[in-house]
Amino acid sequence: MGSPGLEHPGCTTRPSLYITHPHVNPRVAWLDEAEDIKPPRSLLGLPELSWPGVYLPCYDRLVIEENPWVLGMTEAPAPAAPSCRTLEPGPPAPGQAQASSPEAEGQVEERCLEQVQSMVLGEVLKDVDTACKLLNIASDPLDWSCMHVQKWLLWTEHLYRLSQVSTMFQELTGRDLCSMAETDFRQRSLQFGEVLYAHLDIWRSATALKERCPPEESKSADEDSWSEVMYTYPSQPIHLWQFLHELLLKPHSYSRCIRWINKEKGIFKIEDSAHVARLWGIRKNRPAMNYDKLSRSIRQYYKKGIIRKPDVSRRLVYQFVNPV
DNA sequence: TAGTAGGAGTAAC
DNA sequence: GTTACTCCTACTA
């Protein structure tokens, strides 16, 4: 825990910080503090009902926990991944060395909270970007057709276990969806309407911010290369191998269903075959997609020299022939 | 039982 | 023509 990064006011060591599931109890809290810090909404630049995720900046990175209702991450994650942005402590505020006056402490805390805000927004925007690319939809919900809305609903439903929610919001365009109040969402789905409304609200806030201040890209070299391959011709349909690689590039979201075994060699493992197949089916509008069919498509890549089985063949483990 | 491998027909682009 | 989907049989761990 000696790594520099987000500094807790008055602490020399780095505590774990969570942003809890916001529509339950929106707050930011240093868990090893006796008393939680509960910053105002303006801290995150997010609406009251925030992103359904749990954020844990340990050491120098921020991890978004996939399951919003799990708040059990207390272990520090592995060393920072290249794609994760680091937190810079920034220049010391006047008087910080001693941090003796309440004014100085306030400045430190303010800067610290700004770091959190920037970090969280960056992660939210990256998630929005990822979803847009994977689903092939515009970032602005106002531009969504009924099909785009269904894609987004299926995606959200699957990601956050919002059972059957997509069936309750059928035949709606993005504009329809955006014009609905939270009560309308609750009327359609008593159980998940509020969560879905919150999710859409965050999505819209993130895209609005993105338009105001385009994010600075700080991708790693390999990520750049892959993105170039994948998005040079956005009008062309995405290939399965590209889709798999995109999932692999987002371990904070998809490591539970697909992960690298050896990134340098391009070896990866499908941890949850049904989940990956379902995501691919959503992406391709193939509701009947399953792993049997997906794996058949993967095997077609053997002949083309795109994917193969590793030298030591294992179940659900494949290898990109030409990893970047 | 689930995953692997590959043949073959079909559809979309 | 290419790519992926679908269905199938046979085999393996």
Across the major sheet, the strand order is: 5-6-8-7
| Biggest sheet overview | 4 strands, antiparallel
What is the helix/strand order? EEEEHHHHHHHHEEHHEE
Catalogue the unreliable spans.
1-100, 215-235
Quaternary state, please? single chain
Shape: elongated
Helix content: 40-55%
- Kindly report the average pLDDT value: 62
Q: What is the CA-CA span between the terminal residues?
A: 32 Å
The assigned structural class equals alpha+beta
Q: Enumerate how many helices there are, as a single number.
A: 10
Integer-rounded radius of gyration:
21 Å
| Total beta strand runs | 8
InterPro entries: Ets_dom, ETS_fam, Pointed_dom, SAM/pointed_sf, WH-like_DNA-bd_sf, WH_DNA-bd_sf
GO molecular function: DNA-binding transcription factor activity, RNA polymerase II-specific; sequence-specific DNA binding
Subcellular location: Nucleus
Family: Belongs to the ETS family.
Fold blueprint:
Elements: E1 17-19, E2 28-30, E3 54-58, E4 61-65, H1 102-135, H2 146-159, H3 174-179, H4 182-188, H5 193-212, H6 221-231, H7 240-248, H8 251-254, E5 258-262, E6 267-270, H9 273-284, H10 291-304, E7 307-308, E8 317-320
Antiparallel strand pairs: 1-2, 3-4, 5-6, 6-8, 7-8
Helix pairs in contact: 1-5, 4-5
This protein binds a DNA duplex (13 and 13 nucleotides) through helix 10.
